[in-house]
Amino acid sequence: MTSNRRTFAIISHPDAGKTTLTEKLLLQGGAIHLAGEVKARGQARRARSDWMKIEQQRGISVTSSVMTFERNGVTFNLLDTPGHEDFSEDTYRTLTAVDSAIMVIDAAKGIEPQTRKLFEVCRLRSVPIITFINKVDREGRPTFELLDEVADMLALDVSPQGWPVGMGGQFQGVLDFASNTVSRPEGPSREFLGKRDENLDLPEDIAEEAELAQVGYPEFDLEAYRNGDLTPVYFGSALKNFGVTELIEAIAEIAPPPRPQPAGEEEITPERDEVSGFIFKVQANMDPQHRDRIAFMRMVSGTFKRGMKLTPSGLGKPIAIHSPIMFFAQDREIADTAEAGDIIGIPNHGTLRVGDTLSEKNQIRFTGLPNFAPEILRRVQLRDPTKTKQLRKALDDLSEEGVIQVFYPEIGAQWIIGVVGQLQLEVLIARLEAEYKVEAGLEASPFSTARWISGSAEDVQTFEQFNRANLAKDREGDWVFMAKSPWDVNYQQEKNPSLTFSATKER
């Protein structure tokens, strides 16, 4: 049965409170038992999903993890997305695997650049969004101003489902419109302890605001929300556990069950009997003791059973999946079955790659997981020349994960690394050292951008004869034009109208 699955991500700007909200949702779902259990004492707060060394040092999410938990008969698959602006590529791929998203906004800051960028990625796929305005227990901007900013900047109808009773020093709780009760802060830590006050007794100005909001904004419309045209808005404080129950109940009640996925001309629905899914992420070395490699598969249709044989589109021959994994962040357990909407981890030794479709009959190809043209290109400098083999293995692994792209120039021996954002370079160097014992540095590359070339074999060959110094191949062996500047790209496009110079490449 697929209708009880909710597969969603949380998107936000760094520091909007995503990690804390993740923790409280896991607490509500019984996946953890004490608030603070997923915190690291004496270090920057972080949830269990932030497990890599560089994340621990910087207090940010760098990789995307999966956390599965159940509550009241609903299975929630929460995909944790990197909130840092430099991780748009990995984040984009994660957002291809979800059916809905929660957008977390800081009440004091409103919509920040990263929030907007991630929202646009959701809009590309019409992913429905629930908005959670966080930190209302601190001084923030006027509530109407925040709602109007969401409506104006994101071109969305907003439908508030509650109202903060004061902010900052005047904070008295959160009014829930549906139950007409107020969650009030109690106890020494001023957390919400599970009691709702039915004696509203609201300050006059708050009562007027709440009434005006209910009349002035559109009522919640399920169809408009699921089409990506309207966002229900909840208010709360993840830190103080306000508004989290309402949020998780909303996901269970209104967030869509597994949606059909595009596969060329057709869409594959969850009801289809054939088991199918696609790999949206590959992560090596989640367990440093075992040098393991896990491919994350989003189940699209059918009922998967452990031991089943599925054929990866990139391989062409069936593989038996004996040890499929369900995740709670770093913890994992063997999954005997999985339904559409679930995320399972498949241990493998490099046979599965991002973008692969897995299916029983090998007749389906899911689309929509592109590579992006890198915005930063660097050469790799190996400190110890005897470790060339280890470096190649490491770069292969990391490019399969989508951390970096590797280009092999036609002329010259030094490989070129391409990334979407600066932080990925730091991750690269840190992981080369920590996981592969390879010390390397990065130096400037003569190129500033790259474009995939396509056209007839004859036209590509002619282009290659005259431009070898500017050509490289990617890991799949496809031709890439390495440009010194955007002007170079435009010049070559004009000169070679029969060729396509593309900034994205479908996987």
> What's the arrangement of strands in the largest beta sheet?
28-25-27-26-30-31-29-32
Helical proportion, percent range: 25-40%
Question: What would CATH call the class of the largest domain?
Answer: Alpha Beta
The Cα radius of gyration reads 24 Å
CATH topology title of the largest domain:
Rossmann fold
Biggest sheet architecture: 8 strands, antiparallel
GO cellular component, one term: cytosol
Family: Belongs to the TRAFAC class translation factor GTPase superfamily. Classic translation factor GTPase family. PrfC subfamily.
Subcellular location: Cytoplasm
Protein name: Peptide chain release factor 3
Walkthrough of the structure:
There is one protein chain. By secondary structure, this protein is α+β, with helices and mostly antiparallel strands. It folds into 3 domains: 10-63 and 99-256, Rossmann fold (3-Layer(aba) Sandwich), CATH 3.40.50; 262-359, P-loop containing nucleotide triphosphate hydrolases (Rossmann fold, 3-Layer(aba) Sandwich), CATH 3.40.50.300; 370-506, Alpha-Beta Plaits (2-Layer Sandwich), CATH 3.30.70. It is 25% helix and 30% strand. The chain contains 12 helices and 33 strands. The strands form 8 sheets. An 8-stranded antiparallel beta sheet has the order 28-25-27-26-30-31-29-32. Strands 2-3-1-4-5-11-6 form a 7-stranded mixed beta sheet, with helices on both faces. Strands 18-17-23-14-15-22 form a 6-stranded antiparallel beta sheet. A hairpin with a 6-residue loop joins strand 17 (309-312) and strand 18. Helix 3 runs parallel beside helix 4 (113-124). The longest helix has 15 residues, at 422-436. The two termini are 30 Å apart.
